[in-house]
Structures are given as C-alpha cells and as structure tokens.
C-alpha cells in the first residue's frame, strides 16, 4: 500500500492523543492505545497502519490455505488465535472486517468438522454391527482374522461427537472382547489340568505368604518380583475358577506387602516434601526481607539488586498453597516500590525545580506531588477499565477479555497502593508533619 493510502487508513481508524497513538473503537471493542508517538505524529500513524497491513496479509494467507485445503479442521486453532490477536494487536486498520472474515472461516471449519463426524459415526455404527454379528461365532481362526481387521478399520476411522465416543467405544469393545473371552475359555477347557502345575502355584503362594509381613523392603521386593516371574513361567491351563482362586491367593499376599511398602514410601516422601516446601518458604521470606531493605539503598543500585532478587526468586521451588499468594504479594509490592521510585527519579530529572526552589523540602514536596499526579492518572485508567468491565456481556466468548481486564484492574490497584505507601515513606524520611504536607 502506498504512503498516501496508508495515511488515509491511519486517519480513518486511528488518531493521536497527546503523545499516544490510539485505535478507534470498533464492534464491541473500546478505543485503546497501540503505541507512542516517537517523533513525527503522521509517521507514527503510518507505522501502525503498516503493521496492520502485515497482520492483514497474515490473515489473508491463512484464509487462502483454508480455502485450498481438504483438511480444514486442522486450521481451527490458528483461526481462533488470530481472532484473539485482534483484541490486542498494536496496529491501526479495519480490524472489524478481519474479525468478520475470521468468524466466517471459523463457522465454515466447524461445519466441515461436524460433517466429518457424522460420516465417521455412520462408519463406526457399521463396524459395531459387524462385530456384534461375529461375537457368537465358533469359527475361531476365521472370526479372529475378521475381528482384527475390524479393529484396524476402527482405529483408522476419525472421531465422532464427544457425547457418543464412550458409548460407541464400549459397544465395539464389548462385542470384540465377548468373542475372544469365549475363545480363550474354549481352549482352556480343552486342556488337562496337571497336578504338578497346581503344586507349583501353591508353592509360590506359600513363599509369598511367608514374606508378606517382612520389613526388609528392598530385599523382599526383589524376592516377590522373582516369584511373580516364576508364576508367569509355569504356564499350563487350569479351570478358570481354580486358576482365579490360586491367582487371587498369590496376588493377595503380594498386594499385602506392596501396599505396606507404598505406605512406607509415601510416609518418607511426605516428610521430605514438607521439609522441601518449608525450606522454599524460608528462602522466599528472606528474598522479601532483602527486597524491603532496598528502600534504604540508592535508587539505581536498588533497581539492579531488585532485578537480581527477581531472578533468584524464579529459582526457588514451590511452597505450600496457603502461604504462596501472601509471600508472593509481599515480594511483588516490595519490588514495585523500588521500580516506582526509579520511575519517579527519572521523571524528576526531566523536570528540574525552579531556581530558588531546590531545597531538600522543596524536592520532597515535588516528589510527593508527582506521586499524587501519577495516582490521579492511575485512577483515571482504573476507572476506564472498571467501566469497560461493567459493560462486558456475560457470555463465555468474553471470558478471556474479562480475565485480561480483571488482571489490569488488580495491577492498577496495586500501583495506587504502592504509590500511597511511598508518599508516607517520603513523609517519614523528611520528618515533616502529615498535616503540613497535606
């Protein structure tokens, strides 16, 4: 797009207010700041209009891929991601038309997905009917081959509506397993039960019973696992009830020991975990104390140390949930004070006091007044956010935007509280009476 066209687009969908570049409201989205004026306002507008062109090309490129693709369902998450970006992408342009285009693409994709699921449903119902027709067959080998083929076709068939998935899976699984269970029982009943096989099983059960109350955890675990391997190696076929009874006895002895082992291990893990979480809490409390102590340091040095403390914080592991939020909030507030003081000093360096008004008391008053001005600006921003939140429709599609607004409101409230605490700190440092400054 040529510079003239960019300029027209920029003025159509954006504007300059103060030293800020704003996008005009569209649809249900309020006007929002997308950037700052760097040097020339017109060039800043054109810059953000150019950013929109890049974003539009990205959207059109995706739409073109969807149009030519047979598997449209694979693009759904990309479409939803771009729609979400429209709410926060820093640019100036016709976002409304892009939103409509992406919404139309989303609807088309969902319709295609629904069609595919209907087709898959018909296929799976046919496979279930075929499997159910075979479950009473006594032609063991031929039916086995047919059911294996049905299983492969089932796996290859795509998904259906989630509300039907479990029911269909259970029906197919039940039909297939019914045949194989009958087949297994048939061949088991054909084999003679050998007395020596029973004796081997009973010998392993006796050894397991003798070990089940042992507290030599590691050695007994190895012995029982070795008995389990011996059990598997015995082989032979017994009547099902006898086989189950023997197995249940053997398993009961093994389970008795391993349940005791599990409780023993969990007990050790709990003690170790509690100590680990407590140590982490002490480390974080120490970082909070160090951050709070930085208020006594020169600002530039304090900022550098605060960043080091933030990096150290990330390396500390988790703490118990009931203490996590409180210690994090304390650390966050302590660091915020340092960074707010840094911003304040940066602001004051750009606005030197008039000649003759540069005493320590004058400097104090100037900083307190600047903080009050900052608080006033924060409250204005907070009011806009709260108004936007109040106007937001209570539907699921707005939950992401609602969460974003609530997060910003929380941050502004913390900023205001931090600045008020800094004002009180400056008062105490000066030794001035509160009513004298008020």
Number of strands: 3
Whole-angstrom Rg: 36 Å
Number of helices: 14
Read across the widest sheet, the strand sequence of neighbours is 1-2-3
Structural class: mainly alpha
Which percent range fits the helix content? over 70%
* Main β-sheet description: 3 strands, antiparallel
Q: What is the arithmetic mean of pLDDT?
A: 85
Sequence of secondary-structure elements: HEEEHHHHHHHHHHHHH
N- to C-terminal separation? 56 Å
Identify the overall geometry.
flat
Assembly state (oligomeric)? single chain
Low-confidence stretches: 432-438
The percentage of residues in β strands lies in under 5%
Descriptive report:
The protein is an all-alpha fold and 438 residues long. Helices cover 78% and strands 3% of the residues. The chain has 14 helices and 3 strands. The chain has a 3-stranded antiparallel beta sheet with strand order 1-2-3. β2 (20-23) and β3 (32-36) form a beta hairpin. α4 (95-134) runs parallel beside α6 (162-190), α9 (240-293) runs antiparallel to α10 and α12 packs antiparallel against α13 (399-430). Mean pLDDT is 85; it is low at 432-438.
């Amino acid at each position: 797009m040529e510079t003239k066209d960019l300029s027209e687009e920029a003025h159509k969908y954006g504007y300059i207010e103060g030293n800020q570049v704003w996008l005009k409201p569209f649809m249900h989205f309020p006007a929002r700041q997308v950037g700052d004026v760097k040097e020339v306002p017109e060039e800043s507008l054109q810059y953000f209009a150019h950013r929109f062109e890049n974003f539009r090309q990205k959207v059109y490129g995706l739409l073109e891929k969807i149009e030519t693709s047979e598997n449209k369902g694979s693009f759904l998450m990309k479409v939803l991601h771009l729609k979400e970006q429209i709410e926060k992408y820093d640019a100036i342009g016709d976002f409304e038309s892009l939103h409509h285009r992406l919404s139309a693409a989303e609807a088309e994709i969902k319709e295609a997905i629904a069609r595919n699921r209907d087709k898959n449903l018909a296929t799976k119902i046919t496979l279930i009917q075929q499997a159910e027709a075979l479950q009473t067959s006594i032609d063991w080998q031929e039916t086995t081959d047919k059911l294996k083929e049905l299983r492969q076709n089932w796996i290859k068939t795509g998904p259906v509506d989630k509300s039907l998935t479990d029911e269909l899976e259970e029906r197919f699984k039940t039909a297939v397993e019914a045949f194989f269970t009958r087949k297994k029982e048939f061949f088991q009943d054909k084999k003679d039960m050998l007395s020596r096989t029973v004796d081997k099983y009973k010998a392993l059960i006796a050894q397991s019973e003798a070990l089940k109350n042992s507290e030599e955890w590691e050695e007994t675990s190895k012995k029982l696992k070795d008995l389990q391997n011996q059990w598997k190696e015995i082989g032979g076929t017994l009547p099902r009830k006898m086989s189950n009874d023997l197995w249940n006895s053997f398993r009961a002895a093994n389970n008795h020991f391993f349940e005791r082992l599990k409780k023993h291990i969990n007990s050790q893990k709990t003690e170790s975990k509690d100590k680990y979480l407590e140590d982490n809490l002490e480390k974080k409390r120490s970082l909070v104390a160090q951050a709070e102590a930085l208020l006594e340091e020169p600002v530039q040095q304090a900022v550098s140390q605060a960043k080091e403390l933030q990096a150290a914080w990330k390396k500390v592991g988790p703490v118990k949930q009931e203490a996590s939020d409180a210690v994090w909030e304390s650390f966050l507030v302590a660091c915020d004070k340092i960074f707010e003081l840094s911003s304040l000093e940066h602001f004051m360096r750009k606005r030197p006091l008039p000649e003759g008004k540069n005493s320590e008391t004058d400097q104090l008053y100037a900083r307190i007044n600047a903080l009050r001005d900052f608080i006033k600006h924060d409250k204005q921003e907070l009011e806009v956010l709260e108004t936007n939140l109040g106007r937001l429709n209570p539907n699921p599609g707005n939950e992401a935007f609602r969460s974003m607004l609530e997060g910003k409101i929380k941050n502004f409230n913390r900023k205001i509280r931090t600045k008020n605490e800094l004002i009180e700190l400056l008062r105490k440092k000066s030794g001035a009476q509160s009513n004298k400054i008020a």
